[in-house]
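#dry-run=false #mode=assembly
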Amino acid sequence: MVLSIGQIIYVILLVINAIAILNEERFLARIGMSSHIEPGYGDVTSFKSKIINLISAVRTLMRIPLIVLNILVIIYEILLG
Amino acid sequence: MYNQNNPPNYPYYSQQQHSTSPPPLQHPIPTHPPIQMRDPPSSPSPPTQQRMTHQQQHIPHQHPHQHPHQQHIQQVSTDYNMWNDATTQMGMQFGRSAMMAGSEYVEKNINRYVNYPALKYYFKVNNSYVAHKIRLLLFPWRHRPWSRLVKRSEQNGQMEGYKPPRDDINSPDLYIPVMALVTYVLLTGIVAGTEHKFHPRDLGVNATTAFFLMILELAFIKGGCYLLNITSETSILDVLAYSGYKFIGVIITLLVSLIAPFWIVLATFIYTVAANGFFLLRSLKYVVLPDTTTTNTVNVPQRQRRIHFLFLVAALQFVFMYFLIK
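#status=ok
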């Protein structure tokens, strides 16, 4: 198993991309993981609400940094990859 | 040229040493500082030539009136010494202040990003702790108890934290994981060398892989703690230490693989994985299931899920150690 630090960074970036790309209305609401369906329904500490919380946090927080990072990686890959 | 000109001077020196006066020209460096200073640093050979001619000019001069010249030389040398001392002092002072500023800067920036005292806690080890801990990592079956000793303050008996590793064998440390990680990287080089396919690049690759696996396990445990709503005060460094202990088993397996046939290596691997998994199962219990006797907030299905998570962490050791040995 050969891993370099650059590949580790790529893996992390792609995983965060995959979380951030999940669509709220088309995908998450359909499988019952939308963040604004259950305000007060169920306890906040359950497994599912934690995942919902994590996904919405990533989607809100990482949107702008992800755009910049993806552009940087794409330029790097086109020029030097 | 220097070698050719020097031997004729030696008799002169020896004669002079027979006389009462001390030899003035035995140390050629202090006598000619101005010339050295004035020399243009264009090429290395002209200065030596000039110095040689200067010396040769001095030698016939010196014999008739020795005392004034010697005084002059002494004066020059003392001047040079003083100049030398002053510059040395200045340089030393400057260097010291620069170094202090540099170290202060580094310390300030390290303290900003790294919690230094918290990191120091994990390196408070001694010889007997390390020996006992390694024995515990390899033979964890009969050990008891597994709870960490709590450090209490002397005034009111309040809990202040845990005792450092040298007082408590159940405390996690970072000394063994760091040393084991370095040993593991070097050992993979040796193992590759015995198979005649060593390349220096492999050391870096193995180090990165081991590092990545530790990060992955850390992320897994911390993510699981987040998802299972486990709010214990265990720091990231605790989890990092526990995930680093598996290198001991990996090192043992690699050492065995140097000398033993395949089935013994396989047996060693299975044994070390089982020992490490058992160790983690018992040690991480206080991380995953903190104080189940006092707090009743954890309901039964959640506790069940946490125990499953604990077993999953222990079982994942097999995967991680397999990747490390491969």
